[in-house]
User: Fold Ca2+-transporting ATPase from Ruminococcus flavefaciens.
Amino acid sequence: MGLTEKEAAERLKAQGENTLGESRRTGPMRIFLGQFRDVMVMILLGATVISVLLGEISDAVTIILIVLLNAILGFVQEYRTENTLEALRSMTSPTAKCWRDGKLKEIDASQLVTGDVIELEAGDRIPADCAVLKAAGFFSDEALLTGESVAVGKSAGDESDTDNSLNKSNIVYCGASATKGTCRARVIATGMATQMGRISEMLRDIDKEPTPLQKRLGELGKVVAIICLVVCIAVFGAGVLRGENVFDMLMTGITIAIAAIPEGLPATVTIALALAVSRMLKQKALVNKLHSVETLGCTSVICSDKTGTITENRMTVTELSTAEDTYLFSGMGYRVSGAVTKGEIAVNPVTEKALSAALRCGVLCSTAEISAQEPPKSRNRGTLAGKGEWSVTGDPTEAALLIAAAKAGITRQSLSAGYRSIGEFPFDSETRFMAVHVVCGSEKRIYFKGAEEVLLPRCSMYLDGSGKAAPMTAALRRDLAERAEDMSQRALRVLALAVCTSEELDPQRRDLVFLGFAGMTDPPREEAKTAIRKCSAASVKTVMITGDHKNTAVAVAKKAGLLKGGKAMTGAELDCLSDEELDRCIGEYTVFARVEPVHKLRIVRSFRRRGEIVTMTGDGVNDAPAVKEADVGVAMGVTGTDVTKQAADVILMDDNLATLVNAVEQGRCVYANIRKFVRYLLSCNIGEVLTMFLGLLMGMPVVLLPVQILLVNLVTDGLPAVALGMEPPEKDIMSRPPRRSDEGFFSGGLMGRIVFRGILIGLSTLGSFGTVMHMGGSIEACRTAALITLVVSQLIHVFECRSEKRSLFRLNPFGNMKLVGAAALSAAVLAAAVMVPQLQVVFSTVTPDMMQLLTALGFSVAVPVICGVI
Ligand code: ADP
Ligand code: MG
Assistant:
């Protein structure tokens, strides 16, 4: 069936990859040229050309070199960022299950060619336009193409049909999603030839929108730019009025503008966010959109799945209750050993008719696979001895049943002779049960497994100890319900097993024979407990949402440390509440049980109406709307379906709550870091502008020459700021409440601190300039001193910006080695510029004498020391 790899490779060459008009990658050259797009830089380069014409060659060369160096720095960072983001995009690229060389393989969807035969199931995104060959209850959501929001049924039609026009019932379309059932289909159009390709110009789905923070900072940058321009014009005017050379003053004005206007702010924010994204990826959280990094940090409610996220999703059947007896199973987890006992006594499953019937039902109703490395030995039939662990593929609930049956010597192989499956009614978290149609000897049966409340009411008989069906009595029904209740209170997930004879696969039958209850444990993950504790310290509410029974949910919640005074509600109770009532009380609940996907949507909406920032996890197809609605939608990487992953902002590669909480921490950290480097950049810029402006106002000579200003800008703005963006999270970051999403960026008096510190930097630079002048230094010596003071002040300030709460002297100076390295490099460049004779010519500096050096350093150190002491 399908193509061979060789045919496929040939067709791929002829047809091209199955992708929709590739989001054009920004090439390295474009990025590099982009560095010069800035108006101010253009003006500077223009002015430099003029200065060459005027004969000022050496200055011109220096200016061009510095501008180039700056551009290279910017380029390297931006190029790396672009690469990181590109890598992320390719990680989320879809795959397809495709027949090649007669085998079913999972391949990259971009490698599909016409003629390939693929398999689709609920939750998949359809990777190309295909003709349906075989379908079982298959529905597809084509809203993206046709606007029709109701899923359309698909069935096999003309197999050789290659016409992919819209609205055909035998064609599935690229970009649509499978909502129900399964289907086999042949690819008839790929890439731009698909219907989706035709409209893909309209939907470039990769998100290049700036994040709200970037937008806000972009606006801030504009305001600062305008202020700077005004100041520059003032400096220029004041200089000219005082009789300075007009062209020199023009150059000075332009260089101040370049140094002070934070045009790179949005880019630096992108870099910080992208770095956070790659750090999160190392911790197994894949963030689709930069925007979400920010929002994650504001999260105030986490709505999490139970199974697999809070618990390990390694189910073990520990007890099985038939109508007349209760059996215990030993051997935890997936270990290949264990025994079945009744009380203390080992049993022989062959003689326990009801037990073995129930276990057989469990095996027949499972599609999971278990396999052991070495074939296990069954010593007597109720005991299994083997080494190591089962390796499991498929639903852990089903694997647990298979393992339990194996302990009693019942396996799929041992049943294959007597039982043949001919149809299936698949499990769905809305119906909460599944059924298989099986031929057994001369009769046909339906085996059921599912939630106890769904199946028990449908049982009109039960299997007694001798294996005969007997009528169900009211007393027994009550007794069984109580036993199930008791199991669920002990944190066991309870599955009912039942059977009936039937010619048709009618899943709604009500004359079932009760076989037994399987009770399985699924212990909470250790990391999840820690994560939940972390959340409560960080004032983030964790809510558990599960399809399981309320008792089971509550018991697991208690074990995981999640309940703490919170209450539990079921989906049915939720249905009885109006939106207003729900909004009023939802804050008191931490557990939602027996929940269907529609309820998740209501829960998200209700929390959001209360002004919470909601992070919601999901795995099934039906979870997608809730995941989309949440502020941060999270999909499970392992168990999640394509559709949910596409709706999500974050994908947890290990399905683990702890990973999500780490991502929240990273989100908070990156926001704090952005505040840190914005604080740093702005106060430094204010310092630079003030130095020049006040200097002129106070009648001093021009304090710094254009090349010197550019040098300051080069050594202080670039690397130290980026390194500051890589600060590790502060220790208390997860012990404060989340920031409100509408909180201003400069909240908590940040603006005041920036301006104040900026003024101090400016004044100390002027102080150093004036003092050296007073000591009789030459104008070059004064400028050199000012240059040293200005740079060193900023390099000290960058360390002050590491914390908003603690002063410089309370921080471990080596907490961020990248920053130490960046500062050391900048200091070395400064030292070279004032000490190396050749560079002295370039930067018009002189080697300072001891007194001058001490003065310059003294002024830099004075402010932080005084601030630290106060
Ligand atoms: P969860 O939110 O814990 O993942 P599910 O939606 O998977 O919950 O399951 C809800 C209920 O459906 C379970 O309590 C169980 O009774 C039933 N159930 C779960 N998995 C299966 C299965 N594979 N076959 C039959 N019934 C199942
Ligand atoms: Mg589940």
